[in-house]
């Protein structure tokens, strides 16, 4: 199923784009698995997700943990820890 | 008590006096506020703030609502700028109006702690020598935000 991915800050810069549509295989069932699947593409993707401890994710408009299922998600954002305020 | 919540994400500057006057007009006994300003020095030329346009306002509204649920507030205001800002320019306003001084002050502190750690903004520093770097999340900010978790438990 197609998912719209949004990238922000350092992740966006490493990958070189702010959004793309992907169709991961069925066995990619969680946010952590999605990040692994993207990182396996190498290049900027491997760089963007080199430190998994510093990858955060949101599905829709809420933060999720790495074990969150991605089934049914239409939009997933991947980014570094936030630094607002 | 149902609080008047105002949340805005904008590139433009905001008028602190006008925003506080709106909270004062709600008829409470006190208005507390925090204004965040771009810190200069160290050769900083500008600070660039990126945000998640679909999510930022929703998250800020949720944070403001959480403040209103925890303290007896008449009004909550959270305004955050994005884009390129210069040293001395305002970034963020967090403010709360309440019949009670402690509630207004604590709610304001809570708002800025959670905005820092939960609102989807990222800061990039640009220096006069052409270098640039993303600001890292700080453990102190996480600790400041976490103390409100402990208080609720």
TrEMBL record, chain A:
Keywords: Nucleotide-binding
GO cellular component terms, A-Z: molybdopterin adenylyltransferase complex
Chain coiled-coil ranges: none
GO biological process: Mo-molybdopterin cofactor biosynthetic process
Domain of life: Bacteria
Keyword hit for Mitochondrion: no
InterPro entries assigned to the protein according to its UniProt record, in alphabetical order: Beta-grasp_dom_sf (IPR012675), MOCS2A (IPR044672), Mopterin_synth/thiamin_S_b (IPR016155), ThiS/MoaD-like (IPR003749)
GO molecular function, one term: nucleotide binding
Family membership noted in the UniProt record: Belongs to the MoaD family.
PANTHER family: MOLYBDOPTERIN SYNTHASE SULFUR CARRIER SUBUNIT
Name listed for the protein in its UniProt record: Molybdopterin synthase sulfur carrier subunit
Taxonomic source organism: Rhizorhabdus wittichii (strain DSM 6014 / CCUG 31198 / JCM 15750 / NBRC 105917 / EY 4224 / RW1) (Sphingomonas wittichii)
Biological classification of the source: Bacteria, Pseudomonadati, Pseudomonadota, Alphaproteobacteria, Sphingomonadales
Automatic annotation (TrEMBL), chain B:
Gene Ontology molecular functions: molybdopterin synthase activity
Gene Ontology biological process terms in this record: Mo-molybdopterin cofactor biosynthetic process
InterPro entries on file: MoaE_sf (IPR036563), Mopterin_biosynth_MoaE (IPR003448)
Pfam families xref list: MoaE
Domain of life: Bacteria
Keyword annotations from UniProtKB, A to Z: Molybdenum cofactor biosynthesis
Keyword Transit peptide assigned: no
UniProt-listed Enzyme Commission number(s): 2.8.1.12
Catalytic activity, as annotated: 2 [molybdopterin-synthase sulfur-carrier protein]-C-terminal-Gly-aminoethanethioate + cyclic pyranopterin phosphate + H2O = molybdopterin + 2 [molybdopterin-synthase sulfur-carrier protein]-C-terminal Gly-Gly + 2 H(+)
Associated pathway: Cofactor biosynthesis; molybdopterin biosynthesis
Family under the similarity heading: Belongs to the MoaE family.
Subunit structure, as described in the record: Heterotetramer of 2 MoaD subunits and 2 MoaE subunits. Also stable as homodimer. The enzyme changes between these two forms during catalysis.
Protein function: Converts molybdopterin precursor Z into molybdopterin. This requires the incorporation of two sulfur atoms into precursor Z to generate a dithiolene group. The sulfur is provided by MoaD.
Protein name: Molybdopterin synthase catalytic subunit
Organism: Rhizorhabdus wittichii (strain DSM 6014 / CCUG 31198 / JCM 15750 / NBRC 105917 / EY 4224 / RW1)
